[in-house]
């Protein structure tokens, strides 16, 4: 079934590329990072990876997984000396965060499109000895390619909601062989383990390993974090603060009436959208509501909060 899937996806890619590529180049949307999406990486990456004895490719879809990757890399670096670590993300914002958060500890790039052409190019450049998928990021072409090339793949921090089980079960013919392409699957809870098995994973491959994000170490200066943010946000003593974190469309629009009421009573609200490419739309919604706000980036650069709403834009 994976072979048929590869063929169909490959055909659609080649048929659609002559139409979609000019649209992307002309409109500018998704142009940034397009080369990496297609599997064209800077030659310096291949040089860096080739200098290592072995290579571990960690896929972290979003910022939360990047933080988990940092924990994993810290532990593996001690146990696997001589290994080079590569982290891929799905978004440019995630890649930029990874580069800032991981520093020189790992090469950070965008993941290739899940089509045979891009995946084959990426695997040829990365030359991984081990692939680690954080959470349930199941890319059929990539995982099947790793299996064909006998590259060990692991899934860590796996989770599956009760709602998504029905969808996975409906396409069990695809997901069962996909899940069993992993050498081992570490899931967060026993409920997750049961759901993975229900959609076709070999029970012997699935273990409850907990949430790696819980192993994140507090910074050495964590005691100064609260006072620093209090000062940056210009929060008087006893101020009530409402934080809406990792919001998606249309959650901001639904929250704004509550924010309006909350801030009218003297509170300070903070909205942190999950995807920063939606900032323009969110700012428009805030303005349409008649609310005034400060951008976090301005406060970080020394600005002073003058409005009861702060929009996280960095």
Keywords:
14 helices; 2 domains; Rossmann fold; 314 residues; seven-stranded parallel beta sheet; alpha/beta; 11 strands; single chain; four-stranded parallel beta sheet; globular
What does it look like?
The structure is a single chain. Helix 4 (63-79) runs parallel beside helix 5 and helix 6 (116-126) packs across helix 7. The protein has two domains: 31-215, 3-Deoxy-D-manno-octulosonic-acid transferase, N-terminal domain (Rossmann fold), CATH 3.40.50; 222-311, Rossmann fold (3-Layer(aba) Sandwich). Helices cover 47% and strands 17% of the residues. The model has no long low-confidence stretch (mean pLDDT 93). By secondary structure, it is an alpha/beta fold. The longest helix has 26 residues, at 2-27. The strands form two sheets. The protein has a seven-stranded parallel β-sheet, with helices on both faces. It contains 14 helices and eleven strands.
State Rg: 22 Å
Strand order of the largest sheet: 3-2-1-4-5-6-7
Remind me, CATH topology of the largest domain?
Rossmann fold
CATH superfamily of the largest domain: 3-Deoxy-D-manno-octulosonic-acid transferase, N-terminal domain
Number of strands: 11
Question: With helices defined by DSSP (H or I, 4 residues minimum), what is the helix count?
Answer: 14
The run of helices and strands is HHHEHEHEHEHEHHEHEHEHEHEHE
Low-confidence spans: none
Relative helix content: 40-55%
Q: What is the SS-derived class?
A: alpha/beta
The outline comes out as globular
């Amino acid at each position: 079934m994976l072979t048929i899937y590869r063929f169909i996806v490959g055909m659609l890619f080649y048929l659609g590329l002559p139409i979609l590529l000019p649209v992307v180049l002309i409109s500018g949307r998704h142009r940034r990072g397009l080369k990496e999406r297609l599997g064209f990486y800077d030659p310096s990456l291949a040089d860096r990876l080739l200098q290592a004895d072995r290579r571990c490719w960690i896929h972290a879809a979003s910022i939360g997984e990047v933080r988990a990757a940092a924990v994993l890399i810290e532990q593996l670096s001690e146990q696997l000396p001589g290994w080079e670590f590569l982290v891929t993300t799905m978004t440019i914002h995630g890649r930029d965060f990874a580069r800032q958060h991981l520093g020189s500890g790992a090469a950070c790039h965008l993941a290739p499109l899940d089509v045979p052409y891009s995946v084959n190019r990426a695997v040829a450049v990365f030359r991984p000895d081990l692939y680690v998928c954080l959470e349930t990021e199941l890319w059929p072409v990539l995982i099947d390619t790793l299996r064909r090339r006998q590259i060990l793949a692991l899934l860590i921090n796996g989770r599956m909601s009760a709602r998504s089980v029905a969808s996975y079960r409906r396409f069990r013919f695809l997901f069962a062989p996909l899940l069993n392409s992993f050498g081992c699957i570490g899931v967060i809870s026993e409920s997750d383990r049961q759901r993975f098995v229900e959609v076709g994973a070999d029970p012997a491959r699935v273990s409850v390993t907990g949430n790696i994000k819980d192993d994140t170490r507090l910074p050495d200066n964590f005691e100064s974090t609260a006072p620093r943010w209090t000062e940056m946000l210009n929060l008087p003593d006893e101020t009530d603060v409402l934080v809406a974190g990792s919001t998606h469309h249309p959650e901001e629009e639904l929250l704004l009436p509550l924010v309006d009421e909350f801030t009218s009573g003297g509170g300070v609200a903070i909205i942190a959208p999950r995807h920063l490419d939606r900032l323009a739309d969110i700012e428009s919604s805030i303005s349409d509501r008649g609310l005034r706000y400060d951008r976090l980036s301005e406060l970080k650069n020394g600005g002073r909060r003058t409005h009861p709403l702060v929009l996280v834009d960095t």
